[in-house]
Structure formats: structure tokens, C-alpha cells
């Protein structure tokens, strides 16, 4: 009898511990974000659309006033960021080209604006050409140097990044802090990346700049997630939504926490359903496809994948979704050669460690495991700390018989399941 009682006590204790673990696992609360999923108006979007109409009307009345082109482009860029509609980014480009043509490409301000547009389109080498010209021009040189940091970071020119960071060094300057933060994240120093971005947030708060605060909250939330600080990450996204209830990126961030940390794919899809209604960016459909796949819903996974492909077929996207396309096609036997072709183009346009990882992964998926290892050793291993690249590298090492090195990465990857998503857990354990 005592033995049975002891078992019952043990079972009760185990259930209590299990329940407590479940409670600590729960970070989100639908009450926190429910109101943000039912927004009927997007005031920021409405204001940006009014701004476009205002300046277009003025330009029609006085076509010789070329500065209006820049005003229209600025408003169109805002619309793109808020709605994900690619046509607005291309309209902004058209107007910025007009402004630069009118000034014979001699205005550093217009050159920087067009370069910013090209960065958004992932046309980094073209952006660099414009910024080099702006630097030679010399007007507001600090602004040009800040943007040169951005573009060199995207192109993997780390020595150039260091050079320009030293030119604008100022730990009391928001623009410098966000760039030195990104640089530290790139080289794998996440603690410093967080520290500098927190300092930048303090500056944004002191100036009460709502746009900068919103941007800062979401980026800091991303970093917190990478660091395993899930509750801080969640609060960051909520803070961004408190400023702008239509912040699709913040809603996506919460959806990821719900899916990857709390393992509640149904609720994550409910959140993302509201996001795809208000934002046209194609990658939201890929995330929905990933979650549907995790749920075992093959039909919905296929449906969301088709929606993604239909959107990125628009030539206006150019190379903006090259990474997503490579990863998607590499997993599709019928399109693995297509993945390799895109990866070769991506390395030519953007020779970063991440691009080379995609190239190595494409070769691996096409059966060229020795070629994949050669690329990984030369361009990836020790040059990027992104979990996705580490996962690809582990597979490539294992396929080439380097089991010991693969196991070292496996140990690290087991701590990155949140970032990679729950579907990766078994994949990592099988390495």
C-alpha cells in the first residue's frame, strides 16, 4: 500500500513539474496582441498615399519642379515598407531616376536616395556605384559614409565596413550605433550587437522619434530572440505594435515565437493570416507553408508555396528573393539545377559568406558533395555564424565523411532550434 502511495506521490509530482514547465514555456498572451490583429485602418498608409497624391498634383501643375520627384519617391517608399507592394518601390525608383537625370547625377542627396532604393531591391553593386559618386561629390559626407557601411556590409567587404565605421565613430549618435550593432552581429558578437542597439533605442526614446523607436524595437526583438531572451523579444514586438498597430514585421515576430518557442502552429497561422491580408510581401506565404508542413497539412503547404511562387514571378522583384528561391528549389528534385543557377548569380552579385553557403548547399543538393565542401571550407566555415549556414555545413561535412566536425556543429545547432524552427529539431538530431 505504501508502495502504491509512493507511486501516486511521484506521479503527482511529475505532473506538477510538467505543468510548471508548460507555464514557463508560455510567453505570449492573445490579450496582448488581439487588438492589433483586427485593425480596420492603417493611418500611416493612408497618410503616405495622401502624400503621393499631393506631390503628384503639384508636379502636374509645375513639371519643371524636379524636387517634387524626390517627394513622391519618399512617399512611395513609405507605402512599400507599409504594404509590401513592389510596384511602389519601382515607382520610387522611377521618380528618383528623374530627379537624378534633372541634376545630371550631381546631387549627393538624390544619389543617396536612389542608392537606398537599390539597396531595398538588393541591387547592391549599383548602389555602391552611386554612393562612390556621392562620396566624390562631398556633400553631407557623413550621410554617404553611413550608407557606404550599409552597402559594404551587404557585399561582404568587411575591411571597407571597418574603414567607414572609423570615419563616423560616435557612440552618442543613433546612426552610428545601429551600424556598429549590425557589424557586431555579423561577426558573431551578439552581446555587443544588443548593447549598441539598446543604446540607440535610448537615443530614439529621448528624441521621441516614433519611427526610429518602432524600427529599433523590432530589430532589438530579433536580437533578443537570437540570444534566447524570448520574453524580451516578445515585449519588443509588442512595443513596436503599440506605436504602429499595422507593423506586419512585429506581428510576424510574435507568430514566430508562438510557432517556434511555444509550438502552437495553429495560433501562429491565425496571426499570419492577418499579416498576409495587410502586407503583400511574398515571404509571409513561405512562412505559412513552413508552419503548415510542420502541422502535417501538405495541401496548405502546397497552396502557400504556390502563392509565394506566383508573387515572386513578378519581374519587379528582381533578386530580392533569391535566397528564398534557392532554398525552396534546392528541396525540390525537379528544380535543383534551377537553385544552383540562381545561387551562382547571387554569389556574383553579392559575394558574402551567406551567398557562398547557398551555393555550397545547391551543389550538395545536386549531388556534388566534394564541390560543396570545397566552397564551404573556402568561403563559409569560420566566416558566418548564421544557424542556417551552420546546419548546411554540418550536412556537407557529414556527407564527405567529416563526422567529427559535423558533430561539433551539431552541438551548437541544438541550441539554435528556436531560430531554425521546430521542424529542424529531428533533422539536427539525425546529423
Verbal overview:
The chain contains 25 helices and no strands. The chain is an all-alpha fold and 431 residues long. The chain has a domain at 321-431: Tetratricopeptide repeat domain (Serine Threonine Protein Phosphatase 5, Tetratricopeptide repeat, Alpha Horseshoe). Helix 8 runs antiparallel to helix 9, helix 10 (174-186) packs antiparallel against helix 11 (190-207) and helix 16 packs antiparallel against helix 17. The longest helix has 24 residues, at 2-25.
Mean pLDDT: 94
* Element order: H for helix, E for strand: HHHHHHHHHHHHHHHHHHHHHHHHH
The CATH architecture assignment of the domain at 321-431 turns out to be Alpha Horseshoe
Radius of gyration: 24 Å
Write the layout of secondary structure elements.
Elements: H1 2-25, H2 30-33, H3 43-61, H4 67-83, H5 86-102, H6 108-120, H7 124-137, H8 141-155, H9 158-167, H10 174-186, H11 190-207, H12 210-226, H13 230-243, H14 248-261, H15 265-278, H16 283-295, H17 298-312, H18 322-330, H19 336-349, H20 353-365, H21 369-380, H22 387-399, H23 403-413, H24 417-420, H25 424-429
